[in-house]
Amino acid sequence: MTTPSPHPRSPSLTVDVIIEIDDGIVLIERRDPPLGYALPGGFVEYDETVEAAAVREAFEETSLTVTLRALLGVYSDPARDSRQHTTSVVFVAEGHGTLLAGDDAKHAMVVDINALPRELCFDHAQILTDYMAWRRDGKLPAPRLPLSPADRRAIADLAWQTLAATVASPISSVRPAFHGGPLSEPGSCFVSLRNKQGQVRGSMGSVGPSRTLALAVEEMTAAAATSNPQSPIRRSELADMQVEISVLAFTTEVIVASDD
Description:
Elements: E1 12-21, E2 24-30, E3 37-38, E4 41-43, H1 50-62, E5 65-75, E6 86-96, E7 105-111, H2 124-137, H3 149-168, E8 186-187, E9 189-194, E10 200-205, E11 211-212, H4 213-225, E12 242-247, E13 253-258
Parallel strand pairs: 1-6
Antiparallel strand pairs: 1-2, 1-4, 2-3, 2-7, 5-6, 8-11, 9-10, 9-12, 12-13
Helix pairs in contact: 3-4
């Protein structure tokens, strides 16, 4: 049994809400970092239930009154929020009223679940992948365990090799190889390419495990490298480039590959 710490630290409890309305779901564009698109949600207050917090946060950020319909799951990966360790209870809800951004939401919009923006914050790409699977098959997501250090290294090596091959030769010459373990199982990922200054030079992602994780890593890395035809990544940039792979297959964690 683990001995309690004299100065205990616990993850902050949050909620996220998948609001269904007008044949789509509601996303907000965040006003504050981390910037990008996200599900409505926020922190649970003291003496407040998670259900009440979900209804309150949904209204504060979207002006919609929601009826909670289902509990999708609990997401607690320490890397899900770069600011601090948070645990999120995720609900599916039906929205009512007029959509209007509020609180820390810069904009609020209804989007087609099959046409999600690439700049999804936190682990919301994983949450929405699970949501689509639940809607399709009626199965709730199974608990996930973190990838092993060896698996993380294999994913990082595969992404880096794919980037180097794509930059050095036409994308059509990049051919997938066989990879065992988690890389051979169904999965999806988002890939971002950043230079030494932290600027994103390309990004691409897939939602939904329609291919093996190895193929997803290869395809998304190659696509990210060529996503800006006006400013393609050059071979001379490789030494200063980092590949960030957000793996959505097992646990939503960011794996960084570089020229080490």
